[in-house]
Amino acid sequence: MVTKGGEAPTGRKWWITLGVVCGVFAAVRFACLFNDLWMDEIWSLDLLRTIHSPGEILSVLRHDNNHPLNSLFLYLLMPATHEWTYRLLSWATGVATIWLAGIIARRQFLLLHPQDSAAQVNAAGLLTAIVFGGSYLLIHYSSEARGYAPAVCLGLLAYYALLRGFDAPWSGWAVVFWCASGLSLLSHLVAMQIMLAGLGWSAAKALLARSDRRAAWLRLAWWHLPAWVFLWLYFLLVLRKINMGGGPSRSVADVLGDLAAFGLGFPSQVGFALALPSLLGIVLVALFLIWRRNRPIMVFYALAISVAVFCALFLPHATSLFPRYFIVSGVGALFLVGYVLARLLASHWLPRTAAVIALGLFLVGNGAHTFRLIRDGRGQYQKALRYILAQTPTATVTVGSDYDFRNFLVIEYYAKIAGPGRTIQCCSSKQWPAEGTRWIFRHSLDGEPAPPAAFVDKAGHPYRLDRVFTHAALSGWTWYVYRNLDFWPLSASVL
């Protein structure tokens, strides 16, 4: 039963169950920490080695690979004895996101369906927590040392503060909202989508106010103006001077297909053809159902999901796209997936059965992606380097590359594994040895075709593919290691 104050009783059992859900998926995320750092994580560490104080994270590191809150965490840890500890901030905030998703979904379900039983309201929160916990999209970014997981967590904390305290503007929840909004922006600028969605939610409530609309608009200004002033100052002092990195050019459709596939647990090969239409259908149905009951909540999710997509489609510079740029869109969609599952479970036996099957397939599909992340990581860089060290008899191991910056950044970071008396020497195209390099590393990102099995360099030296070191999707790359046959002429018959 729902109480007179508009709350559904939770009880100790619900909180314990939510804690168990968080604990299970915290363990899953923890298992994903123990693999090689990939290029962007290493790049962040390299940038931080050039500064002399934490304040220079904002004043000196004018690069889009600098996610200030995460950079501060890395700076305070450096040099870490164990590299996986660099990912602990993302892990902790990723686990907190599961907890926040559960309590936000429960509160929203109560607002949308106040007539439902407490058991149904509580189940909605737990279902959404399971969806957030099991989604590979969130597992992946909760286990790498970047700013996406903290941005999502703190953005959701800001939204929860709105839900809890907006109707009582002088409460301490406004302070929570301001602090969470500012810290989320310092984690990563994707958090601006949540801020904009929260502003839309508040504006819809003000427009629908039946009495004293002036007070409603003043309340909106009280809550949101400090956060947007902070964003304006952050832009003037820091963001407008940022140098942007590059990346491969991919279509919006392909990137959103990957987002849907790795959010719902579909195979990546059917991302655009099947996963994206499925997710879009769920989102549209959920938005329609919510529109009929609570328009401010509908406005929140419509904005949270669509803003990044709109920017990617219509801003001319949006060419180097990755699924992580749409993580807030994915988070908004996952809330709606949890809502639809909760509605199905609240119905008769056939929809309930469909919901259980769908949730099972969701967990199995995402579990397969997660298993690959645990197995292959974001690239098997150290394993590949140990392999060429073991295969090369000389003290100096020369390597070339198809993309010097990406590959050499990783190779030079892990070259320490060569040990005393041995050196891995990276040879750029401008410093190519007359005899060629002993090894060449070629790489492929998600969705890119594999390179050929053999090729000849510009000096006429033959290379043949020797080993492939794979990676899990979303970050990093697969390495194709080529052997120079001029150094091993007898191996040509057995390779």
In short:
With 495 residues, the protein is α/β, with parallel strands linked by helices. The chain has helices spanning 11-31, 39-48, 56-59, 68-77, 88-112, 118-134, 136-141, 148-165, 173-187, 192-207, 213-237, 252-264, 271-291, 295-314, 327-345, 349-376, 381-391, 404-414, and strands spanning 396-401, 423-426, 439-444, 454-456, 462-469, 478-484. It folds into two domains: 11-376, no CATH class; 381-493, D-Maltodextrin-Binding Protein, domain 2 (3-Layer(aba) Sandwich).
Average pLDDT, rounded to a whole number, is: 92
- Computed structural class: alpha/beta
Q: Strand order, biggest sheet?
A: 2-1-3-6-5-4
Low-confidence stretches: 1-6, 490-495
Q: In percent terms, what proportion of residues is strand? A: 5-15%
Q: Classify the helix fraction into a percent range.
A: 55-70%
Gyration radius over CA: 25 Å
Q: Could you say which overall geometry the principal axes of the C-alpha atoms support? A: globular
Termini separation (Å)? 70 Å
Q: Give the count of structural domains.
A: 2
Q: What string gives the helices and strands in order? A: HHHHHHHHHHHHHHHHHEHEEEEE
Count of DSSP helices?
18
Number of strands: 6
Largest sheet: 6 strands, mixed
3D architecture notes:
Helix 9 (173-187) packs parallel to helix 11, helix 13 (271-291) packs antiparallel against helix 14 and helix 15 packs antiparallel against helix 16. Helix content is 59%, strand content 7%. The chain folds into two domains: 11-376, no CATH class; 381-493, D-Maltodextrin-Binding Protein, domain 2, CATH 3.40.190. The chain has 18 helices and six strands. A six-stranded mixed β-sheet has the order 2-1-3-6-5-4, with helices on one face. The chain is globular, with a radius of gyration of 25 Å. Strand 5 (462-469) and strand 6 (478-484) form a beta hairpin. It has helices at residues 11-31, 39-48, 56-59, 68-77, 88-112, 118-134, 136-141, 148-165, 173-187, 192-207, 213-237, 252-264, 271-291, 295-314, 327-345, 349-376, 381-391, 404-414, and strands spanning 396-401, 423-426, 439-444, 454-456, 462-469, 478-484. The longest helix has 28 residues, at 349-376. The chain is of the alpha/beta class and 495 residues long.
